[in-house]
Amino acid sequence: MSILQEYEQIKKELGTGINKGIELYLSENPNLFLSDIYYKEKEYKKFDEWFKNYLKPFVILKDNDSYSLSLDQMYFDKSIFKKRNKDGIYGNGYDYESLIRTFVDHKLPHLSSKLFYDSENGMFSVSSYDKKIVEELGFELAQELRKDKFKDYISEMENYEFYL
Length: 164
Fold this sequence. Notes:
The chain has a four-stranded antiparallel beta sheet. Helix content is 49%, strand content 12%. It folds into two domains: 1-55; 57-164, no CATH class. The longest helix is centred in the C-terminal third of the chain and has 16 residues, at 131-146. A hairpin with a 5-residue loop joins strand 3 and strand 4. By secondary structure, it is α+β, with helices and mostly antiparallel strands.
């Protein structure tokens, strides 16, 4: 197996979310190479810690044979829902679920059928049996949050009562 084939195999095993994270991590750490992340445990651990911090305020948790991505109410930004307050949408866990479902439908439709939502009033939660799916969603949500793009989906989201 050539080094390029090996890299492709590793890339496939890691999944889209981790690979996008590695690209960003390497752009922020120009002294590192992809091989450092792939083959040096110490460097991968540093990346893994960076990735977890990058996802914040979202958190990935393992529960038996599934993985969940959650957002606690203390991190809810209710101001992004302001123009939907008249519709009864104020920014609770169900509203975040509706917002993120809309985001997934528009930007990541390939993930839609692999996600299971279980939000509550005070917490957003989505899970999958595939860790790579949760990592990809987490990375993409962290990107949207940093770019202040969530509000772009507010006008298109359904009222959360649709999903109850």
